[in-house]
Design a protein that fits this description.
about 160 residues, globular
Length: about 160
């Protein structure tokens, strides 16, 4: 199938976020007392490993699984949330990032209602089939399928 399990991936990511928040609250005093150099080292290491992880996703994901990616991003958020390392301290000084942070949670919390309204307007009011716009939300192999469709239609 050309559709992925986006809802399941979203739920797994959400619960890794809940776990991250729980760990942060539960162990905050322990980690807060660790030296800043440890946080700086972890932040730098996590950031340097990120391009490798993302660029190799298609080959790594089947072998290490989605849990590994969620765990990696959870740990990255966890250690950055203490704001004790070199990178996280510098991020706090960039005003545009503060502004983005100020609004991003609101956008996150309201994006579902925007999608639902979009769906209602297109399907109920304008009578579009969901097939016309489903690619915007869940279609994974659009480029591959488009090429294969073009090849099949030329025969």
């Amino acid at each position: 199938s050309s559709y992925d399990n986006g809802v399941l991936y979203g739920l797994v990511g959400f619960y890794f976020g809940v776990l991250c928040a729980h760990l942060f609250i539960q162990y905050h005093s322990f980690f807060e007392n660790l030296p800043s150099i440890l946080f700086s080292s972890l932040e730098i290491g996590l950031i340097l490993f990120l391009p490798v992880l993302v660029s190799k996703a298609s080959s790594l994901l089947p072998s290490v699984g989605l849990w590994f990616y969620n765990l990696y991003f959870m740990l990255t958020i966890f250690f950055f949330s203490f704001q004790k390392g070199l990178i996280s301290k510098q991020i706090l000084k960039v005003s545009i990032l503060k502004t983005i942070g100020k609004y991003s949670y609101s956008i996150y919390m309201n994006h579902l209602i925007v999608i639902l309204i979009f769906n209602f307007v297109l399907t109920r009011l304008l009578h579009f089939s969901a097939d016309y716009y489903a690619v915007l939300f869940a279609y994974r192999d659009w480029e591959t399928d488009r090429k294969s469709t073009r090849l099949n239609s030329s025969h």
